[in-house]
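Q: I have 366 residues here and want to know how they pack in 3D. Can you give me a structure?
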Amino acid sequence: MSNMNPLPTDRPSTVDNPFDAHGISAIRYGAKVFSEQPIQDLAQLGAVAQEGTVLWLSFEGMPDEQQLAVIAQLFELHPGIVTHLGKKFPGGRIEEYGEQRLVATKMFQLLSGKLVEEDLCIIFGKTFVLSFQDGIKGDNFEPVRNRLRHGSGHIRHEAGEHLAVVLIDAVVDGYFHLLEELGTSLDVLQDDILLRHDRSAPRRIHAVKRSISKLRHAIWPLRDSLNAYYRDVSDDIAKHTQRYLRDCTENAVRVMEMLETNRELCSDLMDLHLSTASARMNEVMKVLTIITTLFIPPTFIAGIYGMNFNPEKSPLNMPELNWFFGYPFALGLMGIMVALLLMFLRRRGCFQREVTSSSDRREGRA
């Protein structure tokens, strides 16, 4: 049965310098053992290695040199791991150091609608798992913690490498939630382009495309590293761990494919925006052309009547100027020519809209 008792401290710590820091949680588990507690200093851990159990320490924040020395001493970390953990290095890699392995990748969250990334480092062996984050509040590991608390799945029955693979899989699964949010943003963008003619669309498309690029640059090397790791260790790890590792690798491949699809969709949306902008420009030019065309006949008639020929000098010099109905006749002639021209343009389809109508926009808003 699960319990929330403090971690056992049956052996005094050999560490003289305690690790005083916030945001450290410790979970020790086995087939019939579970305990969880926050840690104020590593002296509380007591015996790190206990038969039949795995210890998972989760750190919010990367350690400094002094803290790293304490961790290295407690868990007897390989010098290569200590070297890498003490400096920034590219994510998306899995490196082997004897029976210990180091996984470096990126973990993303959506905070206030913005994509926030943080470095994630997972170090694991048979009996322990260490996870280090940049310290941004929240992560993708809460479902894993709940599975450990309730004893669901096979995590409690497997070694530390199984938990490490489950954690990596949780990170990859987090990409699907982000892709769902990005997909929703792209759908809204498409509606705004087609129905509302949003002028901010290019800026918003660029923001989504930049987020996709960040995700792509993070998942690409992780996918390759997972493939290599699966090929190298698939025969040396438990069956359930193999299954999780295979699923994790396949999920990383799916994430890459979905990112490529969304990236192409961003390009398509930009082309769509340019096309609709061009169509709207053509619509405006068409309206201006129709207005200009309609005013040509009245302008022509008014120009004739403005030539100021003197009818007294010749009966051919605009005799209608002295006619009682001359002015109404001129206005009527202008109106008839405009009406005939309107009928001609309508039959030619010049009044059909080439972009979304106002009724369509109202339906889109609804």
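Q: Anything worth noting?
A: The first helix runs from residue 65 to 75. The helical segments are 65-75, 79-85, 142-150, 160-196, 201-233, 239-305, 326-347, 358-365.
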